Amino acid sequence: MKENPKDTALRKDMAEGRLARDGFLGDDHRPLLEIVDADKAVLDAMGVTQEHLGQKMRALMEKGLTGMGMEVASGHLLVKTEEYMGRMGCPFKDGHRAAKRNTTLTDIQSGKSLTYSDLSIHLIEKHGFFQGKGSPYRIEPEELVELLTQ
Fold first, then answer.
1. Which residues pair with 101 in a beta bridge?
2. How far apart are CA 45 and CA 43, in angstroms?
3. Which has the closest alpha carbon to 125: 48, 62, 16, 15?
4. Exposure pattern of 45-65 as b/e (b: 16+ CB <10 Å)?
5. Residue 150 confidence (pLDDT)
6. What are the pLDDT digits (tens) for 19-42?
């Protein structure tokens, strides 16, 4: 699949060191649309929408805030939200600026955990972008769905 010229400029901004130290693509060289489409196909197969995931992620982040840096229980999950100073802009240049926060979810039974940022919530919910393979903040859609829907 050939990349849209508009996406080529966006891909450049998503590279390591441009808008974020580690970038958003990792070692994934697929066109952006192909990355998004592949993850959407996973969500479709699992019967979940990106909007639904974003809403659940945001609700859990907010629950984690009540613990003031300590883990809090939410159903089958332990949730810990840590805040840092500053904000990060959306690489899709839609004007969204997310607080620098990380939320870690840990399944009480299995011990599986997953960490995401506030920007990741926005990227998934509004753009269907789980980041490129090899990116430190890449979230595998299957893992996220499984953790949130147990």
1. 83
2. 5
3. 48
4. eeebebeebbebbeebbebbb
5. 73
6. 566 788 999 989 999 999 999 999
55 DSSP assignment: H
Write the pLDDT tens digit of every residue in 62-115.
999 999 999 999 999 999 999 999 999 999 999 999 999 999 999 999 999 999
Identify the residue whose tokens are 């990116």. Answer: 135
| DSSP code string of 27-46 | T--S-HHHHHHHHHHHHHHH
Q: Within 13 Å of residue 93, how many CA atoms lie on the same side as its CB?
A: 9
Place of tokens 């945001």: 58
Burial class (CB in 10 A: 0-12, 13-18, 19+), 68: exposed
Confidence of residue 17 (pLDDT cuts 50, 70, 90): low
**What H or E segment, with its residue span, contains residue 11?**
helix 5-13
